[in-house]
């Protein structure tokens, strides 16, 4: 049995599927990749003293996390030194909110999410409405009598931006309350970095090129990959000789018995109506419309040397009302959603800013120079009394503008609830009249509980590779 298999996309799911198939002897395989590199939303690039991750950055958790299981054999992890749950909140006039106050308020919000899970599971509404309701009620209790109301809502708004960056939502009023609980957190350290090697390490491990690139069983996926190939159409009832015919935008055509489609949900949303012939079945269209992908971007600044104290971990931004009104009148009003700048491990001179949602998409339309200037403006505005030099280098991400991604990662939105859909609907293969899978779907968006993560994507690549391996094992035994 030597089926022709085409994998669309060389991101984590595509690499996981391809390496598993090749290991099991399925070498009649091609990968069509729209970018000029392997990795997809894993994109490790040289910057500063080492590398930075423009996409996936941390291994989130240990138990049940396949990336951790792959990497822990090689001792490639370190715990992140910036602890994101312990923010030092700074106002736009340079004043810090007293730690005792900010920790009390942030603790209150975390506790709402922790202690009311059962209630949230049965809630019919958004995550934002649920948190706001609880927050308001708890602020009225004697325990919070000493808390200034304006400060309380400023801290809540900061947390809202932080939460949007975790979900990739434009607003927590878009995030489904019960859907928020669909995501499963892996036990263990949730912020493990890959030291000074970056997330591409996991791809090297999958390709058996780590720790030695030249090991005897290394898989050179580049030999199987056709780069700069954007798929225009997948005809999945092509005919008896070739079950599937794939046409790229450069008019090259690839015939296959099976296709594993790993493109991002953003690409599916934009192109599903023309990308598949015949049209996708209603359950699949419903899933593409109902699941949601958002935008989270990073802003990297390299300085000649640190201007911050040795124990400083970052700057979290809280806007005073007058400053916010002023910033909203400026051409760079997207700045209001940069919620902080934080240190980057193994990068002594680099800060990383974070922005998500609508303003992250607006930021992508501004020039590199305008965005760089805006970052320096924010640092100088919030860090009063500190002399902040011009950065040596600047690099930002633009996951939404890139036509090969159209977003960062997926979440469960109010639309997901409304259309009553799920990742498992997106994962259902398209089959021929004999019930044979001809087009399969993988990628983080097709994972029920580990969506938005690399470990979720890798699992789905293995799932679809195993589907074919099991199919041909059964045929061999008939």
Automatic annotation (TrEMBL):
Limits of the Amine oxidase domain: 13-469
Gene3D superfamilies assigned: 3.90.660.10, FAD/NAD(P)-binding domain (3.50.50.60)
SUPFAM superfamilies hit by this protein: FAD-linked reductases, C-terminal domain, FAD/NAD(P)-binding domain
Pfam family, one: Amino_oxidase
MF annotations from Gene Ontology: polyamine oxidase activity
Regions that span the bilayer: none
Domain of life, source organism: Eukaryota
PANTHER family, sorted: AMINE OXIDASE DOMAIN-CONTAINING PROTEIN-RELATED (PTHR10742:SF398), FLAVIN MONOAMINE OXIDASE (PTHR10742)
Name of the molecule in the record: Amine oxidase domain-containing protein
Species of provenance: Anopheles atroparvus (European mosquito)
């Amino acid at each position: 049995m030597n089926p022709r298999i085409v994998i669309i996309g060389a991101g984590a799911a595509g690499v996981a599927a391809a390496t598993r198939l090749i290991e099991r002897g399925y070498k009649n395989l091609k990968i069509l990749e729209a970018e000029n590199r392997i990795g997809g939303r894993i994109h490790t690039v040289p910057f500063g003293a080492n590398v930075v991750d423009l996409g996936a950055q941390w291994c989130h958790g240990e138990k049940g996390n396949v990336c951790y299981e792959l990497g822990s054999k090689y001792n490639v992890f370190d715990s992140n030194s910036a602890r994101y749950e312990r923010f030092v909140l700074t106002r736009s006039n340079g004043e810090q909110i007293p730690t005792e106050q900010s920790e009390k308020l942030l603790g209150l919000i975390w506790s709402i999410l922790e202690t009311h899970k059962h209630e949230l599971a049965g809630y019919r509404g958004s995550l934002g409405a649920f948190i706001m309701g609880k927050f308001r009620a708890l602020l009225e209790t004697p325990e919070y009598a000493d808390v200034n109301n304006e400060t309380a809502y400023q801290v809540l708004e900061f947390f809202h931006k932080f939460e949007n960056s975790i979900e990739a939502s434009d607003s927590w009023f878009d995030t489904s309350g019960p859907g928020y609980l669909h995501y499963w957190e892996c036990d263990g350290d949730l912020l493990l970095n890959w030291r000074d090697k970056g997330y591409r390490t996991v791809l090297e491990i999958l390709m058996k090129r780590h720790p030695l690139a030249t090991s005897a069983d290394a898989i050179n996926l580049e030999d199987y990959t056709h780069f700069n190939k954007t798929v225009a159409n997948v005809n999945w009832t092509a005919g008896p000789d070739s079950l599937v015919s794939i046409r790229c935008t450069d008019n090259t055509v690839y015939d296959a018995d099976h296709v594993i489609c790993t493109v991002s949900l953003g690409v599916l949303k934009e192109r599903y109506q023309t990308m598949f012939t015949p049209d996708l079945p209603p359950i699949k269209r419903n899933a593409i419309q109902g699941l949601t992908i958002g935008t989270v971007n990073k802003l990297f600044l390299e300085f000649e040397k640190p201007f911050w104290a040795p124990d400083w971990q970052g700057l979290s931004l809280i806007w005073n009302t007058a400053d916010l009104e002023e910033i909203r009148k400026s051409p760079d009003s997207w700045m209001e959603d940069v919620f902080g700048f934080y240190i980057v491990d193994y990068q002594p001179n680099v800060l990383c800013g974070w922005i998500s949602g609508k303003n992250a998409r607006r930021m992508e339309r501004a020039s590199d120079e305008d965005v760089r200037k805006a970052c320096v403006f924010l640092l100088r505005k919030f860090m009063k009394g500190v002399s902040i030099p011009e950065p040596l280098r600047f690099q930002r991400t633009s996951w939404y503008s890139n036509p090969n991604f159209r977003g960062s990662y997926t979440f469960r939105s109010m639309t997901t609830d409304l259309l009553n859909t799920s990742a498992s609907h997106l994962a259902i293969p398209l089959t021929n009249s004999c019930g044979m899978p001809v087009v399969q779907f993988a990628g983080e968006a097709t994972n029920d509980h580990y969506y938005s993560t690399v470990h979720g994507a890798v699992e789905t690549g293995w799932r679809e590779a195993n589907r074919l391996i099991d199919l041909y094992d059964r045929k061999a035994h008939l």
